[in-house]
């Protein structure tokens, strides 16, 4: 059995009286691509944000390679360097050009030599077809280009696990493909990833495992394509039907 | 006699004295502005603190400084402290203290406004790449809020330069005071000298404040990039 990288143990989180995460437990193995599905407001994004320490939770524990995420606030920056996170709204830093965006974390936070990071960044830019853009600023790039840069930015930290939070949700349809292709490639490289998405076809193609979340609970968990072929719960069936347009007309 | 009225400016060391007075104005306001900018950033960050009581104290300080006329603050620090605590500040020192207190409060409020208007996502992206708080402010937050801050900060700076004319009243001999002295000295011989002296002082303030506001326009357009 592969090594468990990330373990989430019985975490609870509420906003006021509203429970966001309800005793949720989960383990992610090295090299696994885990896709989290569920209706909006089910706690998918919150879960990712908890893993990265951007949100606190009331009880339970999240450990990355045995290190507890919220145990020591001082240690949080170090821990976050092992967790890449890509957001829906890409969020490149507008005052820095592409190369500066890419090197900020590795050079300033991790203290790696700038020249090495730049060489690596150039290779990655070339690989995603953005070699000519290193001097550009975010506003000069398309949404898809920005999101690819944001993905590279998290890769450059050499993270143990990468979290994708609806990374294609605010992209124009024709830009979605280029971003998903890149994520697909990373999956093939054997990177550990947790992906929150509404692109079901993509999820089907890429997922080693799917969990279906509702009201902060895992209500269905299946290996890869099983979830799409034969969902076990009625709730998951309903959810998949919403995205199935063959019944229209 | 218009001619002789203008000549008052050039009589004796009058012009030199006016420039010396102007220098006092510039020196005091620049020291106060520098302190205000530095402390203003600290104050602004405190104003966005997670802790309610810190925000409360900051809010109280800001409102207190805003409500008080600067002149009253000057009198409190200059006369009040001497009488009550037996602390004797020179007029210059009292001026620097009061203008720094005021500038810090106003600058802090500008910094707070800029900080809160920065999209939350920017901060989260910075945290997500593993920056600590200090690095986050230095590399992500400050560079982004600076552009927004410049026009407002410059406005504050020019207000501070102009308001230093109040320190005449605690006995600091700055440009307006020198002007008054020259006018007084020539009151009997050249009664109309006031218009020329104050006119010159007008241009002196303009000469100080105009480059500051030009600089802000330049920086704004440069950082539009």
Automatic annotation (TrEMBL), chain A:
Keyword terms, alphabetized: ATP-binding, Nucleotide-binding, Transport
Origin superkingdom: Bacteria
Residue ranges occupied by any ABC transporter domain in the UniProt entry: 6-240
Xref: PROSITE patterns: ABC_TRANSPORTER_1, ABC_TRANSPORTER_2
One Pfam family this sequence matches: ABC_tran
Any one Gene Ontology molecular-function term assigned to this protein's record: ATP hydrolysis activity
Family: Belongs to the ABC transporter superfamily.
Protein name: Polar amino acid transport system ATP-binding protein
């Amino acid at each position: 059995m592969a090594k468990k990288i990330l373990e989430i143990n019985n975490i609870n989180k509420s906003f006021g009286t509203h429970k966001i995460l309800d005793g949720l437990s989960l383990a992610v193995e090295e090299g696994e691509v885990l896709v989290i599905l569920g209706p909006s407001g089910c706690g998918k994004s919150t879960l990712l944000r908890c893993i990265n320490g951007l949100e606190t939770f009331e009880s339970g524990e999240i450990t990355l390679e045995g290190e507890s995420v919220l145990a020591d606030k001082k240690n949080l920056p170090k821990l976050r360097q092992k967790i890449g996170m890509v957001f829906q709204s890409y969020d490149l830093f507008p005052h820095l050009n592409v190369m500066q965006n890419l090197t900020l974390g590795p050079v300033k936070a991790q203290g790696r030599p700038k020249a090495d990071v730049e060489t690596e960044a150039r290779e990655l830019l070339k690989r995603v077809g953005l070699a000519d853009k290193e001097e550009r600023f975010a506003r000069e790039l398309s949404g898809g280009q920005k999101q690819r840069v944001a993905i590279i930015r998290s890769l450059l930290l050499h993270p143990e696990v990468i979290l994708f939070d609806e990374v294609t949700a605010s992209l124009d349809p024709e830009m979605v493909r280029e971003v998903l292709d890149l994520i697909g490639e990373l999956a093939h490289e054997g990177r550990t990833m947790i992906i929150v998405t509404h692109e079901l076809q993509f999820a089907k193609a890429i997922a080693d495992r799917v969990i279906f979340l509702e009201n902060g609970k895992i209500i269905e968990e299946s290996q890869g394509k099983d979830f799409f072929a034969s969902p076990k719960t009625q709730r998951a069936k309903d959810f998949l039907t919403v995205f199935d347009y063959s019944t229209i007309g | 006699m218009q001619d002789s009225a203008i000549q008052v400016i050039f009589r004796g060391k009058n012009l030199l004295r006016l420039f010396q007075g102007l220098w006092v104005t510039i020196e005091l306001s620049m020291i106060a502005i520098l302190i205000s900018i530095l402390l203003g950033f600290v104050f602004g960050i405190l104003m966005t603190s997670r802790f309610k009581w810190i925000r409360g104290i900051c809010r109280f300080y800001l409102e207190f400084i805003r409500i008080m006329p600067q002149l009253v603050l000057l009198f409190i620090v200059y006369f009040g402290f001497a009488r009550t605590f037996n602390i004797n500040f020179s007029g210059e020192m009292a001026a620097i203290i009061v203008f720094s207190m005021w500038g810090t409060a106003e600058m802090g409020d500008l910094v707070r406004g800029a900080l809160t208007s920065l999209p939350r996502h920017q901060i989260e992206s910075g945290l997500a790449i593993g920056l600590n708080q200090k690095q986050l402010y230095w590399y992500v937050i400050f560079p982004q809020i600076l552009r927004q801050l410049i026009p407002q900060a410059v406005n504050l700076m020019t207000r501070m330069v102009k308001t230093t004319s109040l320190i005449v009243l605690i006995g600091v001999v700055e440009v307006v005071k020198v002007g008054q002295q020259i006018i007084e000295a020539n009151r009997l011989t050249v009664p109309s000298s006031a218009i020329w002296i104050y006119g010159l002082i007008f241009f002196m303030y303009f000469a100080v404040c105009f480059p500051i506001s030009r600089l802000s326009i330049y920086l704004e357009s440069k950082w539009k990039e």
